[in-house]
Amino acid sequence: MFAGVSSLHSFKVLHFSAFFNGAALRADFSIEKSGLKMKKGIFITFEGIDGCGKSTQSKLIYDYLKKNGHKVVYTREPGGTKFAEYIRNILLNPKNQISPLAELFLYESGRAEHVKRTILPAIKSKSIIICDRFFDATIAYQGYGRGLDIKMIEKLNYFASQGIIPDLTILLDISASEGLKRVKKLKKNDRMEKEKISFYNKVRRGYLLLAKKFPKR
Q: What is the pTM assigned to this prediction?
């Protein structure tokens, strides 16, 4: 575990009905009540399948914390730096055909840059980092979804993230059918969102298994 991150790690699962309007999550969220201790920075990640609402909720939490006087940084994966955003465009462009292994290495490459240029400096400056996806997404999507070797992905995640582990991971759980229905309503059609429901069922299962495996992280 990276020395600059709090020693308390938690994997919190919120089901769709609990956060649909955003109010429940904001009302329940407090840095002081969470038990997270500010050693240098606090690293909070939001996870879930496409259409679960994590981007919306993570931005609401960012706004909420900022309005309450906290020093907060908002970021995302893939992305978070100029170079990583360039990789994001490659990964999500529906015109690109990318093999599962090449896809994995692109995600890890963007993560390495993201950690070095954005996350580590924010931790050192005693900021709260709100991140839309991190390495759990790679295990869920490329591991459980694509069927790549999970132990290999865990090793790559470790090197790319420099050993950083989120202090709190909030998993927004939603059925694959409901998630894809919401994506279609938003008329979003990036490369990942065009995957079939069978793929997203595997990804969702992966997320729930991760939450069960790491209840304290």
A: 0.84
